[in-house]
Every structure is written in structure tokens, then in C-alpha cells.
Amino acid sequence: SKLNIGVFVGSLRRESFSRKIAKAVAGLLPEDFQSKLVDIGGLSLYNQDEDTPETTPPAWVVFRQEVKALDGLLFVTPEYNRSVTPVLKNALDIASRPYGQNVWSGKPGVLISVSPGQLGAFGAYHHLQQTMAYLNIILLNQPEVYISNVPSLLDAKGEISNPQTQKFLQTFAAAFAQWVRLFPVKQTN
Ligand code: FNR
Q1: Residue limits of the NADPH-dependent FMN reductase-like domain (predicted)?
Q2: pTM, whole model, 2 decimals?
């Protein structure tokens, strides 16, 4: 069976550049991988009062199960005001709880930050590293991927038109695949 990669996009925007980059990278993974865009926009804002065995929102339960079954995590996100977008932070928080049942723990992940501007969402990238280290998401540290000036890298169909970017992301996808292969496989499919 194939290795399952969950794709998490830190933007809900219909024409999100981050989602386009995420799809491109997912499409570059080797044949023994399958990826799925995980919906995080439907998760309500985390509230501890609701997180009791009787009252946990079903969407949180499903999301936690979905994360638990993954072999690897691909995060692609813009930054909002030099930090993490709330939709992505909310998803990270939901699957980190209840206390002691953090389903992110021990999973291999990679992070890509995306911006139409010059700085490649560096702020979000580094704030996410802090949270992900705490959650015991085992991030691949190199190569780092900061995508700047993203509109200039995509064609009208939203596919990568810049050959250097394409080549770099191909190398990155191969490194991610190697990374995931180092970890135990989840027997879920
Ligand atoms: C932004 N944007 C932005 N960009 C950036 O490079 N650094 C930043 O700090 C911010 N801050 C910010 C705050 C808020 C509230 C919004 C809505 C936007 C711009 C952002 O990068 C741009 O809208 C991207 O297109 C969003 O990513 P998606 O939706 O294309 O994936």
C-alpha cells in the first residue's frame, strides 16, 4: 500500500497561491505516495469547554483520526502579519488535544511558506517551526522552502511555469519522500 501524505494549506482563499504550490508539490511525489488535501476550513475555533468526551464536535474527532492515520505531513502556508494564519494554527491546536493525545507527535513533516511579496512568509515559517517542534512534528530542516513573488512563478492554470522553481520543488519532493520513508508506516489502508 502507498504512503499517505496529508496536505495542509494555511489559506481558505479560493485562488490561494499556497494551495496551488501544495498541489504542485504533491504532484511531484513518487508513485508509492498518495496525498490528500485535508480540509481545515470546516473546523470550528478550538474551545476547551467543548472538548469533553460528551461534547467534542464530530468534525474535530474526524480530523484527529485523519491526522493519526497519516504517514507524512505537507504544510504549505502564507503568513498573516508576519505570523501563522489562524486557520492553520487552529488545526494544529485541535489535533494536539485532549492533553496527552497529540496526534501530530512523531510524524515526519515539511513546511513551505508562500508569499506574493519578497520575504517568502519567513515569519510564518519560523513561528510554525516553534509550534511544530513543541508538537513533536519531526520537520525536515533542509532544504528550506520560502516561495517569494509567487504570482510570477505560476501560469494561467495555476501550474508552476518557472523552470528553476519546478526543479527545486522536484528536489524538495524527493527529499520529503526520503524523509517519510525513514519513519514507521501507519497500517491504515
Ligand atoms: C497578508 N499578506 C501578507 N503577506 C506577507 O508576505 N506577509 C504578511 O505579513 C502578510 N500579512 C497579511 C495579513 C492578512 C490579514 C492578509 C489577508 C494577507 C498577504 C498574503 O501573503 C496574500 O494575501 C497571499 O496571497 C495569501 O496567501 P494565499 O491565499 O494566496 O495562499
Answers
A1: 4-149
A2: 0.97
